[in-house]
Design a protein that fits this description.
Elements (H helix, E strand, L loop, with lengths): L1 E6 L9 H11 L3 E6 L3 E3 L5 E7 L9 H8 L5 E6 L5 E4 L13 H14 L3 E3 L2 H6 L3 H6 L9 E4 L2 H10 L4 E5 L9 E3 L6 H11 L2 E5 L8 E7 L2 E2 L1 E2 L2 E2 L1 E5 L14 E3 L5 H17 L3 E7 L2 E6 L18 H18 L5 H5 L3
Helix pairs in contact: 1-2, 1-9
């Protein structure tokens, strides 16, 4: 299998889920390529090529960190690959992590992904689904109300203040387009600089005001879904509790949260069962859910992470299961050609 992972930028990539998957695919004998979102080329004949970086196939790697070091080293292989030579394009870049001066990079991976998908290459997650869910917090709002906390999305400060009053003067504010817990605020009746916070957030775009869930003090639970089911390996499920640091209500690993184990509760099963038909129909192969008790608080469809944390709590890293699932999809594609649409194949078990 020849698979290319789309990252924000290879030189700045850290050792997270994407690298863990790439390392496992390499160890399993596949030809693994990486490209940044600036690595695509299109000529006037409609030919698309990709400038890629890869670790030499015969190179033995001991871990994901070792793989990353090799990928970012001077020994890494640089080459231009025709898009049609690929079996899989795995879009893993996170547009919300792009900074000023790289606005062009936000949509590039998905835009070229759509074109490459039209050439018959398997694209994960389905590129058209990613386009529709590009702002995943808006995609979240399309999901059934029964599994979500109350919320509004607006740039009108009066509406936000009204929401605050309606919810006992306690709410969570966050930017519509953001990740990693950045610029997320817990607002209560003692908040002194609310106007300043609102001004800061509105300069960045739309604001989400979300009902505060008291249970968040116990952390939230990240659940990874593959093909619309909880990712599982050897009877173990890809579920991890993220416990906030002292004095911090946000449960992001990037902000110092620690990993702990969690069972799959009936409430979580209900959430998964509720959204599964939608994500399967949309072609979302690998996604992340963030759950507090019986409520889904976020969905990550663009670059779900967490695989690198499971070993900390004695679970498998689930990477082999993910790669084997992709292998099956390539087998199906080889048997049936283009008779199975990409978005169907993307979530075919």
């Amino acid at each position: 299998m020849k698979i290319c992972f789309v990252l924000n930028k290879i030189a700045t990539e850290s050792c997270g889920t994407s690298i863990a998957l790439m390392a496992k695919a390499h160890i399993m004998g596949h030809e693994v390529h990486a490209t940044g979102v600036g690595g695509f080329n299109l000529d006037n004949r409609g030919t698309i090529s990709v400038d890629t970086t890869s670790v030499q196939k015969e190179k033995e790697v001991a871990s994901a960190q070792h793989y990353l070091e090799e990928l970012q080293s001077d020994d890494a292989l640089k080459q231009r690959v025709m898009a049609t030579e690929l079996n899989v394009l795995f879009i893993r870049n996170n547009p919300t992590e792009e900074r000023a001066g790289r606005e062009w990079a936000e949509h590039s991976g998905i835009a070229f992904g759509r074109m490459i998908q039209q050439l018959g290459v398997l694209v994960l997650n389905d590129a058209y689904a990613l386009s529709n869910a590009f702002i995943d917090k808006l995609y979240f709002e399309e999901l059934p109300k029964s599994i979500k906390p109350a919320s509004i999305i607006t740039r009108n400060q009066a509406d936000i203040m009204g929401f605050w009053e309606e919810h006992n003067k306690k709410m969570v504010l966050k930017p519509l387009e953001g990740s990693g817990g950045q610029n997320v605020y817990l607002i209560d009746e003692n908040q002194k600089n609310l106007n300043q916070i609102l001004s800061t957030l509105t300069t960045e775009g739309y604001i989400i005001a979300q009902e505060f869930l008291p249970e968040v003090k116990e952390g939230d639970v990240r659940i990874l879904l593959m093909n619309g089911r909880v990712l599982e390996e050897n009877g173990k499920k890809a579920i991890i509790r993220r416990v906030s640091g002292e004095g911090e209500f946000r449960s992001n690993f990037a902000l110092g949260a620690t990993a702990d184990s969690s069972d799959l509760t009936p409430e979580m099963e209900r959430i998964v069962a509720t959204i599964a038909p939608r994500v399967i129909a949309d072609g979302l192969f690998l996604i992340g859910l963030d759950v507090v008790k019986d409520k889904l608080i976020e969905i990550n469809v663009l670059s779900p992470g967490g695989l690198s944390k499971f070993s900390e709590i004695g679970l498998p890293d689930f990477t082999e299961t993910v790669i084997k699932a992709i292998e099956r999809k390539i087998e199906y594609k080889q048997m049936h050609g283009n008779h199975i649409p990409n978005k169907v194949l993307a979530t075919l078990h």
